[in-house]
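Annotated sample (chain length 265).
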Amino acid sequence: MPRTTADRPLTLREKVLLTLRRARRGSGFWFGLAIELVWPFAMFLTRPSFRGGEHIPKTGGALLALNHVSFSDPVFDTAFVISSGRIPRYLAKSELWSVPVVKWVLGGGKHIPVYRSSTRASDAYKEAVEALKRGEVVAFYPEGTYTADPEGWPMKAKNGIGRIAMVTGVPVIPVANWGTQDVLPPDGKASLFPRKRIRIVAGPPVDLSAFEGKPRTRTHLDAATAAIMTEVTALVADLRGEPAPAAAFDPGPGRPGVAGTAAAS
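Output written by the structure step:
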């Protein structure tokens, strides 16, 4: 990825270079086609800036922990990960596998269906673990859906990401974005003009050494998840240029669980 800072948008030259050099192998036909179609929108109809892509390993399994502020997040997060040289695999609600065309994109891209509130609810967790063991990059929205925090800060997360991290031992890379909510607000209509600033930054792997060899009790899973979300929130605060709340917003029960980390929530 060209050297950039989170303080300025990518230049036209940098966008062209990313377009020519971006990762393509392993996307599958349908997911690859979807990327080709949305790439011009992500690159040229917004003003993106990317930083920290070097923290995403070039090979081997990695778990990306991302904040979630808009339905459009996967479009820009995918562009960021691909620009960093990897193809992300998302967890997405199983209902999308019954939608024409969408099911081909998801299946062809080896994304992971989430069967919420069913006997197959644990399948997504197992498939995510297997994907990481195969050396894939799995993108995870730990909050389970876009944030309900009134100010857009990351919410308290479910502990599914902590469990997967402890089971696999792969690097957990915190990733934050700010600006996608201006392109597609959770409760509003898409807005493209004037072109919106989209800023995405990744940090170094979260230090989870305190949990190595520990039993996967709820206490440890919650603590590991909190450590991950602390790093994600710190990156969001850096992008926003303001301090994060002392405590994460807790929406209470009734949200998606372990694998409710859907690409389309």
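Annotation: DSSP finds eight helices and seven strands in the chain.
Annotation: The mean pLDDT is 88.
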